[in-house]
Amino acid sequence: VQLQASGGGSVQAGGSLRLSCQVSGRTSGRTFTTYGIGWFRQAPGKEREFVAVIGWSDSRTYYRDSVKGRSTISRDNAKNTVYLEMNRLEPEDTAVYYCAATRSSSLTIRTSNYDYWGQGTQVTVSS
Q1: Which of the four, 31, 47, 61, 102, has the lowest number of CB atoms within 10 Å?
Q2: CA atoms within 13 A on the CB side of 83
Q3: Average pLDDT over residues 31-48
Q4: Roughly how many angstroms between the first and final C-alpha of the chain, as a whole number?
Q5: What is the C-alpha separation between 61 and 92, in angstroms, rounded?
Q6: Cβ–Cβ < 8 Å for 120, 5
Q7: Is 45 left (phi over 0), alpha (psi -120 to 50) or beta?
Q8: What pLDDT does 30 receive?
Q9: In angstroms, how far is CA 113 from the centroid of its own chain?
Q10: Shortest CA distance to 41 belongs to which of 125, 115, 83, 99?
Q11: pLDDT at 118 (0 to 100)
């Protein structure tokens, strides 16, 4: 399984971005709809942290508190793509954002529970 993250950029505080995660490939007969997809971020000098996750085909979601209410994760199974729309961006949101796939049926926030990772996309928010 391969994941390709895109959509990052530089914005001013209060702005918006929509990140995309394109998923391709399959293993052991599993398809896109049988993976939960999570977004994580890592700022310089900090550990990678959970941002949001969307479940298998029932599209349950879960967010970290600091982005809840201003971010929306969604998936388009026909396009094998997961989106993370972020609004009212803050300088503290500056980081490299990664998407990852998990075979877990729960909405897991632990990086160790994710089986496949994409490369990151940089988000920079200036004050």
Answers
A1: 47
A2: 13
A3: 90
A4: 37
A5: 22
A6: yes
A7: left
A8: 67
A9: 14
A10: 99
A11: 95
Tell me the pLDDT tens digit for each residue of 63-118. 999 999 999 999 998 899 999 999 999 999 999 999 999 988 889 999 999 999 99
Q: Read off φ and ψ for residue 113, nearest 5 degrees.
A: -90, 0
Average pLDDT score over residue span 31-55: 92
Residue 105: per-residue pLDDT? 83
Phi, psi of 11 (to 5 degrees): -135, 165
CB 1 within 8 A of CB 101: yes
Biggest alpha carbon–alpha carbon distance for the chain: 46
pLDDT band at 32 (very low <50, low <70, confident <90, very high): low
**Cα distance between residue 121 and residue 127, in whole Å:** 20
